[in-house]
């Protein structure tokens, strides 16, 4: 089995990038892609930091490896820089793994992605392979991984065949709302309302949700696809700053190992208990997000939200 092709998404954090690059260096991929966002205007610290980050890939690649770079001169931001880099990656690769500059993988992350990419390569229902496992009940599961409706992006892999459905602008979202397919995807009015609020804010370019990842979640929803989640956590987030609503304790989860032989789950369907836990911890809004939504609704109104 050949080595994974890897895309690193980086910006202005040299210390975190160096740490993640050391994990990639230990794996020694044959092809490494680096997509770097540009410095923010009027920010001299950014210019220095982004140059330090880019220099790492000139200094630390000391194994036989084809390195390709996409270095932005201008800042594209969190909404556009990552998907532009991922688009560029899959223009050249049929499949591969994506690591942001704060996502530190365990050694087994690479093996897990290799095996899952090969095993489910021709299964269109599977569109995402995650490296992070937050669900505490995963230790009671019989398999080495489970299926979920929700993709985690702290270290992940996919195929060109799946990424081609991604649209940062979510142009199909109004039709998706009218189709009521969300009712088949998620049980219960409350979770549908909360998730659709977030998706609507993202689709409308709300200043509170300047991001790219909700569009990927929406892609899996729209395509009625599944994500794979390992039953042991394979990625730690080393860049938590306290500015996001994610629980800081999840960032501190230690990286683990998987058994040498990966066992599939009993059936190829979402695990209901794991998905319920994931929704309650990631898709219910914190009090900070509730305030953000209040300002969003006061400014933009509720037009377009489901009743």
- Residue share in helix: 40-55%
For the terminal residues, how far apart are their CA atoms?
50 Å
Number of strands: 10
Q: How would you describe the shape? A: globular
- Sheet-strand content, in percent, reads 15-25%
Rounded to an integer, what's the Rg over CA atoms? 19 Å
Unreliable spans: 300-307
Largest sheet: 8 strands, mixed
Helix and strand sequence = EHEHEHEEHEEEHHHHHEEHHH
Helical segment count: 12
What's the level 1 CATH class?
Answer: Alpha Beta
- The average pLDDT value, as a whole number, equals 87
Overview of this structure, please?
The chain is α/β, with parallel strands linked by helices and 307 residues long. The chain has one domain: Spore Coat Polysaccharide Biosynthesis Protein SpsA, Chain A. Helix content is 41%, strand content 16%. It is built from 12 helices and 10 strands. The protein has helices at 14-27, 44-59, 77-90, 107-119, 160-163, 173-179, 182-185, 189-203, 213-222, 248-251, 272-283, 287-300, and strands spanning 5-10, 31-36, 66-71, 95-100, 103-105, 126-130, 145-148, 156-159, 226-230, 235-237. The strands form 2 sheets. Strands 3-2-1-4-8-6-9-7 form an 8-stranded mixed sheet, sandwiched between helices. It has a two-stranded antiparallel ribbon with strand order 5-10. Helix 1 packs parallel to helix 2 (44-59). The longest helix is centred in the N-terminal third of the chain and has 16 residues, at 44-59. The protein is globular.
């Amino acid at each position: 089995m050949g080595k994974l092709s890897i895309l690193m998404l980086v910006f202005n954090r040299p210390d975190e990038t160096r740490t993640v690059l050391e994990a990639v260096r230990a794996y020694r991929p044959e092809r490494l892609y680096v997509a770097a966002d540009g410095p923010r205007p009027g920010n001299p610290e950014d210019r220095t930091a982004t140059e330090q980050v880019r220099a790492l890939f000139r200094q630390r690649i000391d194994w036989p490896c084809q390195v390709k770079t996409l270095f932005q001169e201008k800042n594209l931001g969190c909404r556009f820089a990552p998907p532009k880099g991922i688009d560029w990656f899959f223009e050249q690769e049929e499949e591969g793994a994506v690591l942001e500059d704060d996502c530190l993988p365990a050694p087994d992350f690479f093996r897990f992605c290799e095996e899952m990419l090969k095993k489910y390569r021709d299964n269109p229902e599977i569109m995402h392979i995650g490296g992070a496992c937050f669900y505490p009940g995963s230790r009671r599961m019989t398999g080495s991984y489970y299926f979920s409706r929700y993709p985690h992006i702290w270290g992940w892999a996919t195929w060109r065949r799946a990424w081609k459905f991604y649209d940062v602008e979510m142009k199909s979202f109004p039709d998706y709302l009218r189709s009521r397919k969300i009712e088949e995807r998620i049980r219960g009015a409350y979770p549908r309302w909360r998730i659709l609020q977030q998706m609507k804010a993202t689709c409308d370019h709300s200043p509170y949700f300047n991001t790219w990842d909700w569009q990927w979640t929406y892609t899996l929803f729209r395509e009625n696809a599944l994500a794979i989640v390992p039953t042991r956590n394979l990625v730690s987030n080393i860049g938590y700053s306290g500015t996001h609503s994610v629980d800081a304790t999840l960032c501190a989860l230690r990286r683990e190992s998987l058994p040498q032989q990966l066992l599939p789950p009993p059936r190829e369907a979402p695990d209901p208990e794991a998905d319920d836990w994931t929704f309650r911890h990631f898709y219910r809004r914190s009090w900070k997000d509730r305030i953000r939504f209040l300002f969003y609704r006061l400014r933009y109104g509720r037009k377009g939200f489901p009743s």
